[in-house]
Amino acid sequence: RQSRRSLPYKHCGRFRSTVASKQRKEVEGGKEEQQLVECTVVKAVQADLISQTKNNTDAQTRKIAIDFDNTHEAYKSKDNIELLRSLLVFKLCTFDFLVDKNKELMDLSKKVFGKRLFERLMKMTFYGQFVAGEDHNSIKPLIHKNQAFGVGSVLDYSVEEDLTQEEAEKKEMDSCVSEAEKESPGVDHREKKYKAHRQFGDRRGGVVSARTYFYADEAKCDAQMETFLNCIKASGGASVDGFSAVKMTALGRPQFLLQFSEVLVKWRRFFNLLAAQQGKSGMDALEQKLELEQLKESLTKLGVGNKDDIENWFTGEKLGSSGTIDLLDWNSLINDRTKISNLLVIPNVENGQLEPLLRKFTVEEEKQMKRMLQRVDVLAKHAVDNGVRLMVDAEQTYFQPAISRLTLEMQRIFNREKPIIFNTYQCYLKEAYDNVSVDVELSRREGWYFGAKLVRGAYMYQERSRAEEIGYEDPINPDYEATNRMYHKCLEFVLEEIDHNRKANVMVASHNEDTVKFTLGKMNEMGLSPTEKKVYFGQLLGMCDQISFPLGQAGFPVYKYVPYGPVNEVIPYLSRRALENRGFMKGSQRERSLLWKELKRRLLNGQILYKPVY
């Protein structure tokens, strides 16, 4: 990377402009003919010769169609007891009373049956369905069995504190409000979206799937980092090309994520103001190409620096692509000599000055911010050493700009030779496509491997109610159809990037069969072979086996998110699984009907004692 010049202020950074060229690097040479073995679940369909002008070659490919109705293939890894358990659990998830009161009912069961009998009951039902085991050793048989049937694992230690709402709110307020704000509330003109609000302090409310961490102290963060390290080691030891999931809020005080997110968003807004002055508002981020001379003129008029200073900021540099300040680099960020508070400055359009987000940061706050970044660095290095990919989970929109930016900085360092760090993009967000396209463009320019996991999102109800009550724009797409369109738009963009430049990688994390079929159709059109391992698929353990296993047996890289942890400590996770499955199971009877179909098939064929062979 080229050296960066510093702004003539106490922070190190510079203005970034968005994209110049949308041209992609061409892939040299033709694509090899892809031979795919036809089996009962894979239908190989001969395709016409396609003229691939970018390669100046003709490639003959074989299209793949997966039969998601083939229950024999979908459930061949399950014995009959497992199929019956799935049917029971999914049926229970359709009863509103049981789902709404699931936490109370589990607590009551524990008291009535005692700890040992309760744990046994849970392992026969919900725990056995959705959780792999209690520790690294007990999950290995399930991981190896899934692997034998073509399905990999994303290990996810799913233990959470069982806090009351009041305890959660207190922890959140203590950890998200700085000393300066406590001393002089309202003085620093913080935006309300990026401030902590007690009524939304319990971040577990209105959330499906995602684990939630609350900050206690630095020792707790160190302990959570050790848990993630153990998870990475277990993933490396249990499978080849495994993934491990981490959450930024587990690794430090969330105050920094709130503040850094606000800084990034304000710089992006400032960039949009400059774009509007050139008549380029309302465009996609990649289309907002600022004229350099006009940009220099605008900055000079705003008084953000004199002409010579502004000239120096851009000299010898390619224009950036994010419209935000450019951090120094990862090594500098985690270096103890760099004061992170110097980076937390924002442009004041009224007086043309760069101002600190907060009037002051305490020495301890500086240390806490630094330690969070250092913990992330330790995890990334261990992932490289263990041959594991690191999946950074998405979180709430008031944390996410910082999480995404820190993940991107890690990708710049650790994704030079292959994709190690994967960022997560929530496609229920209105800005999802801009986020994906801008990051892909940056990876293309700088030559590192782009890694993305695309999800619809886990915080919709919470995000909507928080935006409405506190008074800022709802960040979520208006309806489910709009989210589907956004998902497919983002996915198609990354698939096209893979087609043109084999450095992009994507995990299609979806339980939606139509989305999976859409992906397979696009891969067929582009001649992308599953053996290239550029497109992955992901589903949660215990759900949508009729999608995961046929894909895996057809040679596609497919992964289950594999939660594990002691029974009593994963109760909060199981509680949310019940809530999520209520909507999922009420909306579709498909999985239950396929399970019944396979059970009937086995009974008619005399396979009452069926055992998977692997």
From TrEMBL:
GO terms for molecular function: FAD binding; proline dehydrogenase activity. It is an enzyme of class 1 (oxidoreductase). SUPFAM superfamilies: FAD-linked oxidoreductase. Residues 144-583 form the Proline dehydrogenase domain. Residues 170-191 have a biased composition (Basic and acidic residues). One of its GO terms (biological process) is L-proline catabolic process to L-glutamate. It comes from the Eukaryota. Converts proline to delta-1-pyrroline-5-carboxylate. This is Proline dehydrogenase. It comes from Oncorhynchus kisutch (Coho salmon).
